[in-house]
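Study this one:
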Amino acid sequence: MDYLVVLIRTVLFYVLITVLYRFMGKREIGQLGIVDLIVSILIAELAAVSIENRDESIFLSIVPILALVFIQVGMAYYSLKNAKVRDAFDGTPSVMINRGVINFKEMVRQRYNIDDLLTQLREQHVRSIADVDYAILENSGNLSVFTKKNNQFGDYPLPLILDGEIQESTLEGLSKNRKWLDKMLIDERVDLQDVFYAFYRNKSIFVIKHSDLNK
């Protein structure tokens, strides 16, 4: 009888967790943010405890699992509307190599050593740091690499404004300041509060306004 109870609970939690994860959205394991990872660990722990404790009501685990799911969905929705909340929970990408120069200060801040950098460069089939123009450590922990050979004309976009928030790290990497950005926006005849996304490429700024999203 005990085996049957364990089997039923296992199947029930399998179906329940599958449905809930579909409800939370499609994301690969490597793309999970801190909140997503915490929720995943807690859900797995609650399910395991409920399967093991056959004498306790299954609802003692289902209720907190549902609560965690709604918290995660609520945070995901709120972070879509608020860039500061999103940055606080998910973090921001870090530039590890800027124009061929290793950013040791940022590596120390991220506790990311040279072996980590070399390993991820090899995974991107990059033989040497000398071949790299830009390397950006994403929130997921993956390293995005732009080589000098493939980007010799600087044709990849660098985000300047996201959800109306100025990306100071990009300005610093470009050796630019707020005054320069204001002038570029004036040339584009657009106000900062109207900008949803703006990126820099080939010495030009490209702007997507909030109003463009509704067309």
